[in-house]
Amino acid sequence: MKPSPPSGSSAPSASTASSAAPADPPPGIAPGDPAAPRDEGPEPLDGLAAPGEGASPAAPAVDGRSARWAAHRETRRAEMLRVARKLIHAQGPDVTMEDIAVASGTSKSIVYRYFTDKAQLQRAIGMHILSDMHRQLVEGIARLEQEAGGAVDAEARIRVMISAYVSTAESSPNVYRFVTRPSDGLNHFLSSTARLVAAAVPESSPSPEVWAAGAVGFVRGAVDRWMTDRTSGPAGGTITDDQLIDHLVTWLMKGMRH
């Protein structure tokens, strides 16, 4: 299992990124304006809203100009996320907001309109990665159910989940290391991942949420060590990704049954 890295692994040029997005709004926008900077990460995944994160109250009606600015902001923010992820993939987790601004063909002050700090950027990229993992989980379970002609057991579901996690880390180690650096963004990523895992555990299991939280911490620690061994350990001195997945599934399922 050797997934391909994100498309376009090299950082885009400033001119390319600049032409891909519309111009930024004027600098004099008031904080209360719909175009003012807000923390607008991706919508929560189905079943993954954090406790207390229910539906938002209905937003007041906005005029056409405000709606256009809001749509522009979403487009521009998504473009910056794409540029940042490619840049981190190519250059490593230590890229700066200045680096991202240059690659986006804009200034650092404009980048800060969309992401107040690097932790917020980390959280946003983490949610994109989680969305990818959720898609892999849904597609993987659907494929297994089709092959089996019915529902699959917890072990098969956990295997798909772990495979998605390992392939995500392996496809872009730099992005994985950026997302899993200690911060509030990491805590959000891990808690969301735990909710994703808990959804794959049978309801009959004792304390599935607690088990899922422990499983995510265990898998993360094992994957971190595995990746370190691959880059700095002796040649051929580590296990393959498939062997790692087999070991993790065995260890976790043994713990669930006992």
TrEMBL record:
Keywords tagged on the record: DNA-binding
UniProt DNA-binding residue ranges: 96-115
Composition bias type Low complexity, residue spans: 7-22, 47-61
Positions of the HTH tetR-type domain: 74-133
Pfam families: TetR_N
Annotated segments matching region Disordered: 1-73
GO molecular function: DNA-binding transcription factor activity; transcription cis-regulatory region binding
Full protein name: TetR family transcriptional regulator
Organism of derivation: Brachybacterium phenoliresistens
Taxonomic placement: Bacteria, Bacillati, Actinomycetota, Actinomycetes, Micrococcales
